[in-house]
Amino acid sequence: MGIPKYFRWLSERYPLSGQLLTQVPEFDGLYLDMNGIIHNCSHPEGKSLTESETFINIFNYIDFVFAKIKPKKVFYMAIDGVAPRAKMNEQRGRRFRAAAERQSESSFDSNCITPGTEFMARLTEGIRYFIVKKVSEDKEWQQPKIIFSGHEVPGEGEHKIVDYIRKHRTPNERHCLYGLDADLIMLGLALHEPHVCLLREEVFRPASIKVDSSDPQFQRFFLFHLSVLRGCLEKEFESLKPFDLERIIDDYVFINMLVGNDFLPTIPDLKIGDDGIMVLMDAYRQIDPPRRGYLHDQGVVNFTQLQRLMRILSKFEVAAYQHKKSRDAKEKSSEDIEDRQGFYEYVAHYYKVKMNIDYPIPNIDEEFPSPPESVIPLCSDYIKTIQWVLRYYFTGMPSWSWFYPHHYAPRIADLCTGLEKYGVDGFELDQPYRPFEQLMSVLPAKSRSLIPQAYRKLMVDADSPIIDFYPEKFDTDLNGKQMPWEAVVLIDFINISRLRAAILPLADMLTTEEQARNELGRVFIFVPQAPEVNEYPSPFPDFLPSISNPRCRMEPFEPKDPSSIKYGILPGTRSSDQLLPGFPSLDTLPHSASFRFHHVRVFLQDSGLESLVVNLDPLRKRFPSGCIDYGTSPPTIHSSFAKSILSKKRVFVEWPYLRDAKPIAVWDAFGRHFVDDEGILQVVEHGRDEKDLWKSKTKRETNFMSKRMAITMEDPIVMIEAHMFETMEVHPGGARTRKYHKDAFLFNLNATIIEEGLWGQDPRYQELCQEPLASRHPLGSEVIYLGKGQNYGKAAVISGYSEGTGLNIDIQPAPSELPHEDVKRFIEQEDEVYYSMEDVAEKCGLELEIVKRLVGSVDVKTKKGSRIDLGLNLVPSPRGKKAFGYSRLNEGAWCFTAAAIDLVKEYSTKFPRIVPKLANLKLNGLNYSDKIFESEVEAESINSWLKNKSDELFQVDINFEGLNSASIRDIIYNIDDDSQKTVGPINVSNVEESRVLRIKDAQYQLNSQHFSIGDRVVNIMNGGCSVQFGVTGFVSGAIINFKTKDVTMVEVVFDEPFIAGSNLNNRCPDFRGICLQPWMLLNITNKQYEITTCTETQK
User: Fold this and answer.
1) Contact at 8 Å (CB) between 187 and 162?
2) Residue 1062's beta-bridge partner residues?
3) Looking at per-residue confidence, does 465 or 212 come out higher?
4) What torsion, rounded to 10 degrees, do the Cα atoms 928, 930, 935, 938 define?
5) CA-CA-CA-CA torsion sign (483, 488, 490, 494)
6) How would you classify the pairing of strands 175-178 and 196-201?
7) Do residues 581 and 26 lie in contact, with contact meaning Cβ atoms separated by under 8 Å?
8) Do residue 694 and residue 717 come from a single domain?
9) Residue 724, SS3 per DSSP
10) Per-residue model confidence (pLDDT) at position 234
11) Which of 85, 409, 610, 731 sees the fewest Cβ atoms within 10 Å?
């Protein structure tokens, strides 16, 4: 299915279904479709990476997603194994095209991301090593089942995931599926599980935004809620009620397959971008499934209904022909438009041109004539493959060897009669292909280095019996599509019998390693339990050490018996407004809905599609006249109702996602209502400033909800002033209460739920009473010491209890600290001079308007239709990125380093004819190349130069400040030298509880720390973080909110290497750098939590 076209269509059709990931629900299961991660991390934005860098990127990505989602029960990772033959045809075309487009033999060959290659075998071993290390060292990884299905296990990654869920699901389990494939949406719907979300990176961003796709810290993520999509589909087919929603969803998955999937070519004229899905849904409504029968039942096709659907679609096909004919003809006549003879000549032309099939014109007097004998095999194969796809999606693999043996689909006109004779009672579940059979089936000769040496001559030798399988040149056909990657690749399908006959005589020439790589493997589960070995050997001893005393055992995983699978929605599953906390539902507020052109802006521009527009019920329907006085103009809130709202400890704002907020006042057009310290309701009439604020806030709120989410409502009558929930606050004795943000915001009562329901009962955020000391601090539990002196921030273990409320602790050995004055000295040495934009213009001898464009972004469209950004992007783009080491925001004005001036000079010297023309180009808007370039060669030359320069730049958040590589190197040298001296262990008794920090309380207690560049910090996360507990490092950079001065992200270089560490874009040694949230660290230079009272005794 078209990616990202389908995701965009779905998001604009149903704007409420997805949101930027800002709050994460609690999930039982996390499932990674790994191939998207592998592609992102192996060749991000065309950069060349070493294999070790690629693997470390992948480990870091896995670790990041795990820490973000925190699955409670299962963490399942799946890499694509050998695919079904039906998928191999699509893979073959894609890989041949990729090889043809590869710019040089030295560039990364993405075709190595295919089961059976040495790269995939090493990666699988690397991921196993990574899992063993994480389970051995990270307590968070010891909680859920960790299951890994590598490249040697047959099956596509997303289908492995769904097969696991299908066999092991129970009611009301919460699943998060990570993946870039739109098939995951369809597979997720087919599970009939309301508590399913899809996690994916942001797909649509301005062309000038360059994000390192291999580093998740710099990605924005979308959470796509299937609970909301299910509600949207119920609205979509409202006219068919009453119906079984689960059967409607099954049919929706089916009709989407007709628009595009990886196993069948698209039916002519049905394309996502041309309203193909809309056409199918309209046709589906006309066949009235609830009364006349649904299209299929768990993959078993209802041919009568499918034939009805095709007959309705045939009218669309005729209309498409008529539109094309009328558009092409200079003169139109009604006789031409209604000419059935002409239509069938058009159909005959399609078959002849596309497939060289002769098509005798059928009896056009019949409304739905039978297709000619020449196309019946095509129609039969198409309908049989539809059945194969449905069973694959709904019940699992029906046959490994089945495939559709044609490049094109039949016309709809030939699928209107006799479909039942194409039916298949069942498929033979044969064996998957061997990995090397798949490699030989899908790889082109240009990628022959990826297959065993013994087989390579079969791809290139003139006398090879299968040389025709590997053409150097081949044709492609856009077939009505627009993008090159959508084109049909016209190469012959593999004859598997010929292939096997060719490779069989060469089997004895395979090495032992190659023979092992050609075997099919098993899924493994990783158990947190000491194995019988003292060491887990490193698969990459050159850059990763072996694991000493691993506390993890790898065992074959045995899935449940398929006979126990229950299809459809499980009994006891919550739905509607009873979904579990964090899973939004459209049923939590009364509303009406309709589909219309609303021009929503989900991505970068207004949508031209019809969208689901939700109109929230007016307040007069939700609240009777005793709550709001509708007789006044404008309406005002009754005091009793205002007081009842303010009596609530919490309300839930921003429907449908329902964020927890604490109300402190109610606003209406007259004034601000609040309860004073004595519990008396007070009303302060709006002054002029408050009236202006009321107008601007209400307008902004309603406009945003309408434009982004297609939520409409009456003009706000009442706004609630409230503090948003921020975190949990831990009190002495272990009690927990909710902590709300210090600033209050206004929220529309129309989109607010006042009564607490199931959505407010997230166990992570429930207030707790005091616990006994031994329960709060069990023996052997790890803490961080907050007492005064040199041991502040050191890791410690609870060893006993003193009389009363004292604790006995053992402070662990740790390196002595480098004096902060020494660190500060290195930082001061970096003090770099910054120049204003006017200074840059003067030093470069250029006009200021030219410099503005050179350091910014200038979007240009070439004659070929491609886009070039002629700016260097040293200053922020629309997403707030800047080039590190080149620019800085100083009191609202941009300033630049000497390196930036040198780069501008180099640009103007390299392209002296182009640079002066920039003064007349738009900074915000599209420019056209015919006003700039003399030829396409010149355009390609400057684009290539800019791309190379862009790869050299490190794009960071606008608010990021950090050390350069020289300063980091100096600090590391002195720290590494000083760290040879260690202090401890120390036994301390009668320690006050306030002088230790429980690890699980860190996210609540440490979220308001201050950090400065160079501060020494300690990692206090004992699980859920790549760095081991208690390891120290120093702050090399930070993202600091320009207005609030709050630190939102801390970049740290740690004293010890760790497996998912990076080199911070070559600014520090490998495996030492990472970005962490502030609460994961304790600042031990600026000791903001130091307790100075002393009752303890050291031994």
Assistant:
1) yes
2) 1073
3) 465
4) -40
5) positive
6) parallel
7) yes
8) yes
9) strand
10) 97
11) 731
Q: Please give, one letter per residue, the 3-state secondary structure of 537-555.
A: CCCCCCCCCCEECCCCEEE
Using left for φ > 0, alpha for ψ between -120 and 50, and beta otherwise, residue 296 falls in beta
Query: Which tens digits make up the pLDDT trace of 245-267?
Result: 999 999 999 999 998 788 999 88
> What is the pLDDT, as a whole number, of residue 162?
96
How would you write 337-354 as a 3-class SS string?
HCCHHHHHHHHHHHHHHH
Contact by Cβ (8 Å): 226, 48 = no
Residue type, 738: R
Domain carrying residue 125: 18-81+117-234
User: Would residue 229 count as lying in a domain?
Assistant: yes
Q: Which residue has the tokens 């601090």?
A: 777
Q: Which two tokens stand for residue 810?
A: 């053992």
Is pLDDT at 878 greater than 60 in this prediction? no
How many angstroms separate the CA atoms of 441 and 450, rounded? 13
Report the 3 state secondary structure along 537-605: CCCCCCCCCCEECCCCEEEECCCCCHHHCCCCCCCCCCCHHHCCCCCCCHHHCCEEEEEEECCCCCCCC
Q: Are 63 and 143 in the same domain? A: yes
User: Ranked by mean pLDDT, which of 46-50, 79-83, 741-745, 794-798 comes out on top?
Assistant: 79-83
Integer Cα distance of 636 and 671 in angstroms? 9
Tokens of 494: 């593999």
pLDDT of 912 reads 93
Is 330's pLDDT higher than 70? no
Tell me: do 742 and 818 sit in the same domain.
no
Query: Facing residues of 712 across strands?
Result: 615
Question: Rounded to an integer, what distance in angstroms lies between the CA atom of residue 42 and that of residue 26?
Answer: 30
Residue 50 is predicted with a pLDDT of: 86
Amino acid at 174: R
Residues 6+ apart with CB under 8 A from 1059: 56, 59, 130, 133, 544, 1026, 1071
Q: Return the higher-pLDDT residue of 533 and 387.
A: 387
CA distance 721 to 980: 56
Burial of 626 (0-12, 13-18, 19+ CB in 10 A): exposed
**Residue 353: φ, ψ to 5°:** -70, -45
| Count of CA atoms in the C-beta half-sphere (13 A) of 397 | 25
Residue 895 located in a structural domain: yes
Q: Does any domain span residue 787? A: yes
Q: What six digits make up the tokens of 584?
A: 């939004």
> Which residue's structure tokens are 């009406």?
592
Q: Which residues pair with 859 in a beta bridge?
A: 869, 926
How far is residue 336 from each of residues 271, 323, 346, 351, 396, measured CA to CA in Å? 26, 11, 13, 22, 48
Segment 493-508 shows an average pLDDT of: 96
878: left (phi over 0), alpha (psi -120 to 50) or beta: alpha
Are 645 and 616 a contacting pair, CB within 8 Å? no
Tell me the whole-structure pTM to 2 decimals: 0.89
Q: What is the per-residue pLDDT across 688-717, written as a single tens digit (0 to 9) for each?
A: 998 888 888 888 888 989 999 999 988 778
Clarify whether residues 341 and 364 are in a common domain.
Answer: yes
428 torsion bin: left (phi>0), alpha (psi -120 to 50), beta (else) = beta
* Domains contained in the chain, number: 5
DSSP track, 282-304: HHHHHT-HHHH--SEETTEE-HH
Q: Which of 923, 958, 993 is the last residue of a domain?
A: 958
409 Cβ partners below 8 Å, 6+ apart? 264, 265, 266, 267, 268, 382
Question: Which residues, listed in sequence order, are joined to residue 19 by a DSSP beta bridge?
Answer: 223
Continuous segment of H or E residues that includes residue 117: none
Greatest C-alpha distance within the chain: 104
515 token code pair: 């023979």
Is there a contact between 135 and 552 (Cβ–Cβ < 8 Å)?
yes
Specify burial of residue 468 (Cβ count, 10 A radius: 0-12, 13-18, 19+): exposed
- Is residue 460 helix, strand or coil? helix
Q: Which of 593, 592, 647 is nearest to 617 (CA)?
A: 592
The DSSP bridge pattern shows strands 986-991 and 996-998 to be: unpaired
Length of the chain: 1099
